[in-house]
Amino acid sequence: NNQQEYYQRKINFESSIRRHVYLNSVSKHLTNHSAKYGVNQFSDLSPEQFRETYLTAQAKVVPKYTPLKHGNSLKRN
Amino acid sequence: LPTKFDWRDKGAVNPIQNQEACGGCWAFSIVGAVESVHVKNGGALKQLSVQQVIDCSYNNHGCNGGSTVTALDWLNKTKEKLVSQSEYPFKAKNGMCHYFAPSHDGISVKNYQAHNFSGQEKEMMARLIEWGPLAVIVDAVSWQDYLGGIIQHHCSSHNPNHAVLVIGYDTTGDVPYWIVRNSWGTSWGDEGYAYIKIGANMCGIADSVTAVFL
Predict the structure, then answer these.
(1) What proportion of chain B, given as a percentage, has pLDDT over 90?
(2) Contact B161/A56, CB-based, under 8 Å?
(3) Which residue is catalytic, options B38, B60, B162, B201?
(4) Collapsing DSSP states into helix, strand and coil, what is residue B151?
(5) ipTM computed for the complex
(6) Angle at which helices B25-40 and B68-78 pack, to 10 degrees?
(7) What's the rounded mean pLDDT across residues B17-22?
(8) Residues B78-90 as b or e (16 or more Cβ within 10 Å = b)
(9) A63 to chain B: which residues are within 8 Å by CB?
(10) Burial class (CB in 10 A: 0-12, 13-18, 19+), A4
(11) Distances in Å between the alpha carbon of B200 and those of A43, A74, B6?
């Protein structure tokens, strides 16, 4: 319904295709278990739109795991 | 340690969910962990309410983002019971917190742990088996284009931005990998799952790891 949005999504899609070529260029030298990159439901989003919508988790700084200390505290719990 | 382990084999993992355009991955990951640990403790597999966590975890920002640690801290402090998905369905948008009577059926958290396992992924494998599926924060920028296979490149560990659930691992092949349950529907990745190489803190998978105890 919105021609401007259609063209923007088309540009995003074309950028995605170029990105897939780059991402797959490293993988093809590896085993056939390597990750593959290509068209999916996010291909018409810009990386910024994707980040804003889906990459919204905040990581807290957490203590390094120390097997003895945390193993003991778990047993106490 | 067994060479491979998958909580799906124990019937402890619900089908892949779809967060749609709601940035609530943090809630999906911890609710998935609670569902699985409930089965590990001898309970039945239930689908619990993600929307309840999105609406009620007041130190987070609902569909605009949040932290797994903050959400678990809230569940642990308030002892709020997670009700079933059918009683508090997912709407993919922020809403008013709906409170239930203390006598209402639900699952509450007894405790949780949050650790950095970088450089200790073997230890993390042991804890996955002992504690149950682990909610982790990864750098998922390159996941926009992911179709399947084992992620071994293009994934930094410096920009954690997406919460997922590690439900297993497999070390039987040339490249050992984590089995990761995402919340972007079954049309993403390998039927909704991603595989990440073990041993190099790929995507920062070991940097922010949380486990829940019921």
Answers:
(1) 97
(2) yes
(3) B162
(4) strand
(5) 0.93
(6) 50
(7) 98
(8) eebbbbebeebeb
(9) 114-116
(10) exposed
(11) 28, 27, 20
